[in-house]
Amino acid sequence: MFRITEKKVFNPQVKMLVVDAPDVAKKALPGQFIILRLNEQGERIPLTIADYDRSAGTVTIIFQEVGKTTKMLGELETGDYILDFVGPLGNPSHLEGFKRVCVIGGGLGCAIAYPQAKYLHNNGTHVDIIAGFRSKDLIFLEDEMAANSDNLYVVTDDGSNGNKGLVTDKLKELIEAGVKYDMVIAIGPLVMMKFVSLTTKPYNIKTVVSMNSTMIDGTGMCGGCRLTVGGETKFACVDGPEFDGHLVDFDEAMRRSGMYRDEEQKKLAGHACRLKGVVADA
After folding, report:
1. 70 and 97 in contact (C-beta within 8 Å)?
2. pTM listed for this prediction
3. What CATH number was assigned to the domain covering residues 2-89+262-281?
4. pLDDT (tens digit per residue) in 78-88
């Protein structure tokens, strides 16, 4: 059992939990993830490690309530427990040796991009962050991103924060203004990562994307997270989660990501949370 030591609500759908998990915190690195299970009957879901504190023995996760399990997770409070919290899983990001990097986060992807930017910035890399949200009401981690970057650009689809545009618009503007990036890291919706990769390809800028495919066991055995990279089958859980954005078959990945949408909606329609009773009984 893993105790929740802190909870923060960024907006009605996006929440942060700090979890007491010293064994995970001891080995966690940017780019890695955990798989959790809320109770004996629950599904296993992967969530990227948004931050970690080795001295406190805690791991931070940030998630959006989009399915049954994330909604149940969002109903937990400080002092409640998570049954399983396994990790760190996946390969850590390769972040050494870069002079200037642009880290791009789209929506919830900012929670995954933030630890990359933080690590790079703390190790002397010049970091520009481009963060994209649908509207200003959905913006989160703005202060944290500003503190861990040299330049922060926050854009919104509707312009409600005064900066209307897509992350690709800002990226192209910076590149065409003469900014030379050693690498671009893009984390967010598949369609966003696809078009970031298309934007950087003509300039031959190394581009890394984080593929958060559907996972079950996190060990490569189930095959649920498979994708095609450079014409070869890869598994996000053991080969990734980060890949060369110029080689990923995003169209295939987007088709696969929608395979279980109908089933998820059926689960949501019948959801009545009994988690706290289950946890208390345990």
Report:
1. no
2. 0.83
3. 2.40.30.10
4. 999 999 999 89
